[in-house]
Specification:
Blueprint: H1 2-28, H2 34-45, H3 50-69, H4 77-95, H5 104-125, H6 134-146, H7 150-167, H8 174-203
InterPro entries: YczE/YyaS-like
Organism: Halalkalibacter alkaliphilus
Transmembrane segments: 12-35, 50-68, 75-98, 104-125
Length: 204
């Protein structure tokens, strides 16, 4: 029972932290990660919010992943995108409405803090071993279909998102490069630390 509670807490708290990190990278105004830039670009061209597009794009990816892997859609992933989507809107629309940062140094600091928080949150939520974010599912689907290594699949997925973000006018810039190349190593660093801590809590 305690194990399930800790896993559930890790899942919800981790996703909340991820959404906060994503929000900071968007607010920094230096360019967001490819998928986040896509959602922001779509939000600017439609009546829907960034969080709404996180959910819409996630649903599309769930269907695409199902087609690529020729398996049933992983509907439980809807929980993940709903949580992230609503939390991103909470941070952007309620906590930081109309926030505008013009000082470059402050933009860089907020961007870097956002990336670290994203990696930290991802490391926490993955400890629960519940549903994957559809973006991660897309990466694994590409790996299986194309027969490539996971890093190659991740690169392909990011390029697809990047091209789509450019097409819809999403915020692409320095931040996009930083997020793309730093998030993986940061998660790799954070993950074992949280794994040891949470496993100890479960044992206790």
């Amino acid at each position: 029972m305690k194990s399930l509670f800790i896993r559930s807490f890790s899942y919800l708290f981790g996703l909340m932290i991820v959404s906060f990190g994503v929000t900071l990278t968007i607010l920094a105004g230096l360019g967001a990660g490819a998928w986040d830039a896509l959602n922001v670009g779509l939000a600017h061209k439609t009546p829907f919010s960034v969080g709404n597009w996180v959910i819409f794009v996630g649903i599309i990816l769930i269907v695409v992943n199902s087609v690529l892997t020729r398996s049933k859609p992983i509907l439980v992933s809807l929980i993940t995108i709903l949580i992230i989507g609503y939390f991103i809107d909470f941070w952007l629309l309620i906590v930081f409405p109309n926030s505008l940062i013009n000082e470059f140094f402050l933009q860089v600091v907020i961007l870097l803090v956002g990336v670290v928080i994203m990696a930290c949150g991802a490391s926490i939520y993955m400890q629960a071993k519940f549903a994957l974010i559809p973006i991660d599912g897309f990466m694994f689907a590409l790996r299986d279909v194309l027969g490539v290594k996971i890093m190659a699949a991740k690169t392909i997925a990011e390029v697809i998102a990047l091209v789509a973000a450019v097409i819809v006018g999403g915020p692409i810039g320095l931040g996009t490069i930083i997020v793309t190349f730093s998030i993986g190593p940061l998660i790799q660093w954070f993950y074992p630390h949280f794994e040891k801590r949470l496993n100890w809590e479960v044992v206790q």
